[in-house]
Write a structure and sequence with these properties.
single chain; 261 residues; 8 helices; globular; binds NADP nicotinamide-adenine-dinucleotide phosphate
Length: 261
């Protein structure tokens, strides 16, 4: 098993991509700290980890709150004595409205959950990783952080910021045997995306047409590349961003597929 005796903290791990990463890590031997802002689903995810024979600690905390992130990391260190792996995954979706109609508070909230959350969790966890001279961090960015998409004036810049934060932390902490990389998923069929399709704010037909592989991804298809980046097989990969998107970013010009409504 690739992650035996390792302790991993996964944010936003109650559902979706975060839960898939947490379960994949547990299957490979890691004990997992499940963070989420929502208790019910996170509790169920922690139970699934325990059923796999691994230890799970549930910590409800808002990743955008400095105090809550500090307490979450202290509680994790108290329980396990170390954190080897951090997955910055917690996220929310954009309002998907024209910028002139966008609420500034919502813009700020999205930046806080994604970019500030990634920064705070990295900083608090990094303190211990620097001390123990070992750490592996993977930040979940997005293809929307690599190319413009209409009506994502918070989400896109937040994800682009996460990709740059990844590079900055990677070069700063490389000397401490800490690798920091990001993964940029394309459209992945999570509950959030499914809800968006049902509400008509996400158009899966256009997404499929725009994705060279012609389909949305599965959460496990994000978890496996994340595990590769965390593994010894990727020991010399640092500061990289890996698109996992069925060819979305390779397909450079897509104005014909996405008309601005
Ligand atoms: P998801 O199913 O909505 O899961 C995100 C989890 O994060 C939810 O449990 C959510 O709780 C939690 N969360 C929200 N705000 C939080 C906060 N302040 N502190 C702690 N936890 C918080 O989303 P997903 O699709 O799996 O996405 C996971 C990550 O991948 C996100 O960063 C997203 O931007 C990124 N991503 C997703 C896709 C995709 O197509 N799904 C594509 C590219 C990138 P609530 O449910 O209570 O809000």
């Amino acid at each position: 098993m690739r992650f035996e005796n390792k302790v991993a903290l996964v944010t936003g791990a109650g559902v979706g991509i975060g839960k898939a990463i947490a379960l994949a890590l547990a299957k490979e031997g890691a004990d997992v700290i499940i963070n989420d802002i929502n208790g019910e689903s996170a509790n169920a995810a922690a139970d699934e980890i325990k059923k796999l024979g691994r230890q799970a600690l549930l910590v409800i905390a808002d990743v955008s709150s400095e105090d809550e992130v500090h307490n979450m990391v202290e509680k994790s260190i108290e329980a396990f004595g170390r954190i080897d792996i951090l997955i910055n995954n917690a996220g929310i979706s954009d309002q998907i409205v024209p910028t002139l109609e966008q609420k500034v508070d919502r813009w700020q909230h999205l930046m806080d959950v994604h970019l500030r959350g990634c920064y705070l969790c990295s900083k608090e966890t990094g303190k211990y990783m620097v001390e123990q001279r070992y750490g592996r961090i993977v930040n979940i960015a997005s293809v929307v952080g690599l190319g413009g998409l209409p009506y994502r004036t918070a989400y896109g810049p937040a994800k682009a910021g996460i990709i740059m934060l990844t590079k900055n932390l990677a070069i700063e902490w490389a000397r401490y045997n800490i690798n920091v990389n990001s993964v940029s998923p394309g459209y992945i069929l999570t509950e959030m995306v499914q809800k968006g399709i049902e509400l008509g704010v996400a158009d899966d037909k256009t997404v499929k047409r725009r994705t060279p592989m012609g389909r949305l991804g599965r959460t496990e298809e994000i978890a496996e590349p994340v595990l590769f980046l965390l593994s010894d097989a990727a020991s010399f990969v640092n500061g990289a961003n890996l698109p996992v998107d069925g060819g979305w970013t390779a397909f450079g010009s897509y104005g014909d597929a996405f008309e601005i409504p």
